[in-house]
Write a structure and sequence with these properties.
Shape: globular
Radius of gyration: 18 Å
Mean pLDDT: 88
CATH architecture: 3-Layer(aba) Sandwich
CATH topology: Collagenase (Catalytic Domain)
Strand content: 5-15%
CATH class: Alpha Beta
Order of helices and strands: HEEHHEHHHEEEHHHH
Helix content: 25-40%
Bound molecules: zinc ion
Structural class: alpha/beta
Number of domains: 1
Distance between the termini: 31 Å
Low-confidence stretches: 1-22
Length: 271
């Protein structure tokens, strides 16, 4: 089990044992920019996974879990598309191997949630109660809860500024602090890294000349294997991701999801 705030999970999922959860916190409050210094051979982004038809394709389902007016106003189609592009470009290894393809499936806005069969989630959001995630995972409405793929929550930060990544009942998810949702890139790569099974790597020591890695976080960290360095996923991290990726892909291929099937049909893609 990875590091987690016990109190957080107690209010989040009283109905499920913590053993179902693999979550990680990211304690950095301020967005961390990508390093500009890279080794000459390191992949820096610039190509998209979308042209690689043999890579597993994952749906992205966004869910607004706050009624903060700035968060609501900022979660635009343009921003969601930027994030789809970001993952297609940079959910990749330091050697430039793309690890998956991503496509937006749906966005559960406050209106969608309010007018769904799971309006209790909406009530929890506007009334600031702590039942919204518990209710979410029980929701059967496919417009609110995707039965497969990756779920990305835009979360409030009234009492907890952290972002999280993990899996719930076999579904990878990330909860992103709305302020970072609107402007950060690193947090998405970091939390999805967790959702795909990667833990924290230790930040380079000051003056060591070591280079930062997207999974850097000192609490509970492990040193990267000797010789591995770089901003995106190093070879050992990429291997972990591919293993978890293939488990997810196999499971999701068997999961009924008419919403996703329609998105794929409309864009002439197949699962
Ligand atoms: Zn983390």
């Amino acid at each position: 089990m990875r590091k987690m705030t016990v109190a957080f999970w107690v209010w989040l999922m009283p109905a499920f044992l913590p053993t179902f959860i693999d979550a990680n916190d990211d304690g950095s409050i301020e967005p961390t920019a990508e390093p500009t210094e890279r080794s000459a051979t390191e992949y820096k982004g610039g190509t998209s996974a979308l042209s690689q038809g043999d890579l597993p394709l994952f749906s992205l389902h966004f869910v607004l879990m706050t009624d903060n007016t700035k968060a609501v106003a900022g979660a635009t189609e343009t921003r969601l598309k930027e994030l789809e592009n970001l993952l297609n470009e940079k959910f990749a290894s330091t050697t430039g191997e793309h690890l998956a393809r991503f496509k937006i499936r749906s966005f559960a806005t406050l209106d969608v949630i309010k007018n769904s069969g799971c309006s209790e989630i909406y009530e929890s959001i506007v009334n600031r109660t702590n039942t919204r995630y518990g209710n979410y995972w029980k929701c059967k409405d496919p417009n609110v809860r995707a039965p497969q793929g990756i779920t990305i929550f835009i979360k409030h930060h009234d009492t907890d500024k952290l972002s999280y990544g993990g899996q719930m009942k076999g579904l990878p998810f990330a909860q992103i602090n709305w302020e970072r949702f609107l402007k950060d890139q690193r947090v998405f790569l970091h939390e999805l890294g967790h959702a795909f099974g990667v833990g924290h790597s230790c930040p380079p020591k000051k003056g060591s000349g070591g280079r930062p890695n997207v999974m850097n976080f000192s609490k509970g960290c492990k040193e990267l294997p000797a010789g591995e360095a770089g901003w995106l996923f190093t070879p050992s991290q990429a291997e972990k991701i591919k293993k978890r990726r293939d488990t997810y892909a196999k499971k999701f291929a068997k999961t009924k999801d008419p919403v996703w099937d329609k998105v794929l049909a409309d864009s002439l893609l197949t699962r």
